[in-house]
Specification:
The complex is a heterodimer of chains A (303) and B (298).
Chain A: H1 2-6, H2 12-24, H3 29-49, H4 68-75, H5 77-111, H6 114-129, H7 132-143, H8 148-155, H9 163-166, H10 168-193, H11 197-205, H12 210-221, H13 223-238, H14 242-247, H15 259-269, H16 273-297
Chain B: H1 2-58, H2 75-80, H3 83-117, H4 123-135, H5 138-151, H6 158-182, H7 186-194, H8 199-210, H9 212-228, H10 231-236, H11 245-255, H12 261-286, H13 288-296
Helix pairs in contact in B: 1-12, 3-6, 3-9, 3-11, 4-6, 6-9, 7-8, 9-12, 11-12, 12-13
Chain lengths: 303, 298
């Protein structure tokens, strides 16, 4: 603005255009104000708090402590445990679970009869539409010692387990797959619709089997959808809190304490706001990295 | 007839000779189709178990974790249909999510218009920032938001929570809305412009009427997201009488350890009904993939 103001005497019409341009941007204001106060503000605070020793009990004793929270975190066995569990959770339930299952369902549904297709998509989407806590509660009931899974296993004469104690991370991974697969399925169904049928048929004529057609023809054609889907489900899974918290509360012990749960426990159960925020910042940075990859995939048209 | 007959007999022969080959290929195709259908049905049945359990246990007087066939009773529903357990949390949720959705949709429409129509050096960086924020894990900013709300005395305030919910949903709302608005042709607008209408008149009289389906999609999407949001109200609200239904499920589960699963299932069903209905509206009127297409195209 200062530049245009200084150049004003010589460039009158340009100044008029600049003002006009600013006026045209006025409708953006409400959104920008909300975003700055409630998103940019907290993110800036997040960066600031992460370097303090703030506690829940009062702001009076807050000091700048530099990288203490971070050095502490990387020496904290619980934090390392949370990072590992988050990796297992994201890779296991999103990258492998939801992604593969969603693709498999989309591919199979193309070949299935119409009623079967609608039954499958209805059931899978129903699990997705349900609120997170309800899904968590249903999955808790499914994996509980006297739950449906053990009842089914007993019916099949297979060994039963107390899943939420022996394999809790597997249970929450499966819960997240159960809840989230619909998204990948919808993305892949839409993408498969756009695969030119001639390509697939040509490959079939050339003698390619179903697997080869999938690997060599379909997947390369839909690779952008694959990447977009992977980024989005990774981001979603990274911030899952309610599902895990309703199922296990991070327990038993800390066996399902992923980063969001660990962050919450540190900040509110142990009252260490500063430390919890440092953990949150780690989560935020990881999310931001994935988000950058994601926006590079979606190109915004040039002006 | 005689003329056409003879070539046909000639053609039939090789076909007869090839029939066994065609036959196996045909049966193999049928077999694989049957296999696909059967495995999808089996998979759906397994997927359905938790949902079925919820429905069964909600009408079961002795709620247990087994998949049993009960003598149906409405007792669970009768027990929870009171102000403290159901009506107030549902109303709180409706107020906060409804208000937040309205705010978010209005701001998105306003913001989408300049982003979709005007060219400027700032447009692309702004859109990239918006798209970038859609990916940020909101969970991670909740602790600073909590500290911020404590400082400005907005903690345990329903309007404060509403504002935050709206802001958190804005990036996706703006992005989706801008994509829908891009689909409205410019020609009509230019005619109105020449007749002297200003930007707001054009937006209200010409653009919006042409993109109602898009606005409805954004509205429903935003509402479903907020209705299911557990973490935000869980952190920002403290008084039990202000909590929405999403936190209600959680407090219910922790308060009644191992008992009254029937009631909790009944409550879950009531809590889920609004979003299921809204999703059905979305899918029925606009087709399931429609909304996603708008979200994912660049």
């Amino acid at each position: 603005m200062t530049v245009t103001a200084a150049a004003a005497p010589t460039a009158g019409p340009r100044r008029g255009r600049a003002v006009g341009g600013l006026l045209r941007g006025v409708p953006l204001l409400p959104a920008v104000v909300l975003l700055v106060i409630f998103l940019a503000g907290p993110i800036a605070y997040c960066v600031y708090y992460a370097f303090t020793d703030m506690q829940l009990t009062g702001a009076s004793g807050t000091h700048f402590v530099g990288f203490d929270n971070f050095t502490r975190a990387f020496r904290d066995a619980d934090f390392v445990n949370a990072v590992e569990l988050t990796l297992v959770f994201v890779v296991g339930s999103a990258v492998i679970g939801q992604n593969t299952l969603g693709l498999a369902l989309a591919v199979l549904m193309e070949k299935a009869a119409k009623p079967v297709r609608s039954i499958t998509s209805t059931v899978v989407i129903a699990a997705w539409v349900l609120p997170e806590v309800v899904a968590g509660y249903l999955m808790y009931a499914f994996f509980f010692r006297q739950g449906s899974l053990n009842a089914i296993l007993r019916g099949l004469h297979l060994p039963q387990q107390n899943w939420l104690y022996t394999l809790p991370i597997l249970a929450v991974c499966i819960a997240n797959v159960w809840r989230g697969t619909a998204f990948s399925m919808l993305v892949y169904s839409a993408a498969l619709n756009d695969v030119p049928q001639e390509l697939v048929e040509a490959a079939e004529v050339d003698g390619a089997g179903p697997w080869q057609r999938l690997w060599r023809v379909t997947l390369p054609v839909i690779r952008r959808s694959v990447m977009t889907n992977l980024m989005l489900i990774t981001l979603q899974t990274l911030s899952v809190f309610g599902l895990i918290y309703t199922m296990t509360r991070g327990g038993p012990g800390n066996k399902t304490e992923t980063l969001p749960v660990f962050m919450y426990q540190q900040a509110f159960t142990s009252s260490l706001i500063g430390y919890g925020t440092a953990v949150a910042l780690v989560l935020l940075v990881v999310g931001a990295l994935f988000s950058v990859v994601y926006i590079r995939l979606l190109k915004i048209e040039e002006d | 007839m005689a003329v056409t007959d003879s070539p046909r007999t000639v053609r039939v022969r090789p076909a007869v000779a090839r029939r066994p080959v065609i036959g196996t290929r045909h049966t193999r195709a049928t077999a694989s189709r049957v296999a696909v259908n059967v495995s999808l049905l089996a998979f759906s049945a397994l997927y359905l178990v938790p949902l079925l359990w919820m429905l069964l246990v909600s009408v079961n007087a002795h709620g247990s974790f087994r998949l049993s066939v009960p003598s149906p009773t409405g007792e669970n529903f009768r027990n929870i249909l009171n102000s403290d357990t159901t009506y107030r949390p549902m109303l709180n949720g409706l107020l906060m999510c409804g208000g937040g959705t309205m705010l978010c949709v209005v701001c998105s429409v306003l913001a989408a218009y300049p982003l979709s129509r005007f060219r400027s050096r700032l447009r692309r960086p702004f859109l990239y920032t918006i798209l970038f924020s859609t990916g940020l894990p909101i969970t991670a900013v909740m602790i600073p938001v909590y500290s911020m709300f404590v400082q400005v005395n907005l903690i345990d305030s329903m309007p404060g929570t509403t504002l935050f919910l709206a802001a958190a949903a804005l990036p996706f709302g703006i992005w989706l809305m801008k994509n829908f608005m891009d689909g409205v042709p410019l020609v009509l607008e230019e005619a109105a412009r020449i007749d002297g209408a200003n930007a707001m008149q054009v937006l209200w009289r010409i653009v919006l009427p042409l993109m109602w389906p898009g606005v409805i999609v954004v509205t429903i999407f935003t509402f479903i997201g907020m209705w299911g949001n557990f973490f935000v109200p869980f952190i920002l609200l403290l008084s039990p009488e202000k909590l929405p239904a999403s936190v209600g499920v959680f407090t219910f589960l922790s308060a009644h350890d191992q008992t009254q699963y029937g009631q909790l299932a009944a409550f879950s069903i009531i809590y889920s009904i609004p979003v299921v209905m809204l999703y059905l509206v979305l899918a029925r009127r606009l087709g399931g993939g429609f909304a996603l297409g708008g979200a994912l195209k660049g």
